[in-house]
Amino acid sequence: MTKRKQEDKGMKYWKQVLGSLTLAGVLVAPLTAMAFGGGEGHQGRGFDHMMRQLELTEGQQAQLKANRESTREARMAQRKQLIELRKQISTAIESGADQATLDQLSEEFGKLKVQEMANHKKMREQFKAILTDEQKAKLEQLKSERQESRMKRREERSSSQDTES
């Protein structure tokens, strides 16, 4: 195999790795948004809606807000790091950087994504810890309904794309 083919194969591999890590982040984000919301924009509205549906007490709402605020600065810093690292990776790929550089950047990116996933899990656990048993059951019901709705929309999109083809 020529050196160029090896480099192309290596680039494809790293694009797949980065794509998988990005996909993992995309899959985790809705769960975190449902559990904590972002406090801004669409996620904040979703969080408020969920709090109403779960009928959280004022004390529970205050505890959730305190939990979110206590981690907000760290989450924002981590988000900025990920954005900057994505830019570096994109620039490196487009400029034809060597494999060692891509390996190093992807390792950093992977570590940050794993850390982000662990933080999300911790936040979900904190969230569930303040819920009553009834609220936990309601949360599971809401998650199931949301997943069913998402699957239905996916099927509808898939069938409409099939008929267009």
Automatic annotation (TrEMBL):
GO CC, any one term: outer membrane-bounded periplasmic space
One Pfam short name: LTXXQ
Biased composition (Basic and acidic residues): 133-159
InterPro entries: Cpx_auxiliary_protein (IPR052211), LTXXQ (IPR012899)
Keyword match GTP-binding: no
Keywords, comma-separated and alphabetical: Periplasm, Signal
Region (Disordered): 133-165
Subcellular location: Periplasm
Superkingdom of origin: Bacteria
Single GO MF annotation: unfolded protein binding
Family label: Belongs to the CpxP/Spy family.
Protein name: Spy/CpxP family protein refolding chaperone
Organism: Microbulbifer okhotskensis
Classification lineage: Bacteria, Pseudomonadati, Pseudomonadota, Gammaproteobacteria, Cellvibrionales
